[in-house]
């Protein structure tokens, strides 16, 4: 038996930093990753797809998002089993029980809307642990496995569940955590043979059995300090002896990158420029900059010009404010050759004095004014 394990599609997700056409393109990429599972399934010969929770970003979605998402699932062409997770639980407002979803749900899409065993075909079963609220007070996996006996050979069972595992969470007393020891016991005794998990957006194997995996999100949702390895779907093989083989396939196209850089002079700015220039697929790349250093006004103007240029090329490029600390200090003689005199020269001298002052707000305004002056005179061109 071969199937695809995926999770955390979070269709309908928006990212506040994406402006212009970047957000629609990002949303389309997330739907394309879903629809593209059909080609992967055909290529590897997968029988069905399990989606281990968080199919949708939340339960209050625009009708267009629901309709387009269902069309993407229809395009997969083989059975797709959807598990409600913490983003889209089976509560009173569930998207899965809404009139639009029920009216337009394709025949190949099945919602795992009750805990317990779901029959896929003779010899293959799914054990589902759907979420019914955003904050369950128990281990849903332990609950659903309790009382299920080992399947009769040659029955193969796949657990589809969502949530954190206790060994990976710093707060191990959280009641909703999946208890690894109990899950491993169920795997060892043949109650289930593979655990398809969702909630963690990076590809992650749990334990050393090779039977417990987070597939991660098929398209990146957060920066690389949070998601180290997103963008995958798992091809899972379980043979007649219930031996398991898992093969990751990269399907994502977007990147969310964090760059930490020390910038103290024009050479550092040129290095940053080169690094940004070498990045490929800029229209599908989000860059968050954490910059520290001390610059002259001339160099700060050059940095701003550099960022302005690449800001037009990347899907997003901006400062990570709480990790950015740039001091701007006017250098001696930096404004002596502008070719101005009289009142204008006196105004520049006053701005320089203010830029070197101790009042951070006034200094910042003066530094910005001086940087603009340099850029208008082409001194700060990148």
TrEMBL record:
Residues 1-223 form the Calcineurin-like phosphoesterase domain. CDD domains: MPP_Mre11_N (cd00840). The keyword Nuclease applies. Pfam families: Metallophos (PF00149). GO terms for molecular function: exonuclease activity. It comes from the Bacteria. The keyword Magnesium does not apply. Keywords: Exonuclease, Hydrolase, Nuclease. Belongs to the SbcD family. This is Nuclease SbcCD subunit D. The lineage of its organism: Bacteria, Bacillati, Actinomycetota, Actinomycetes, Mycobacteriales.
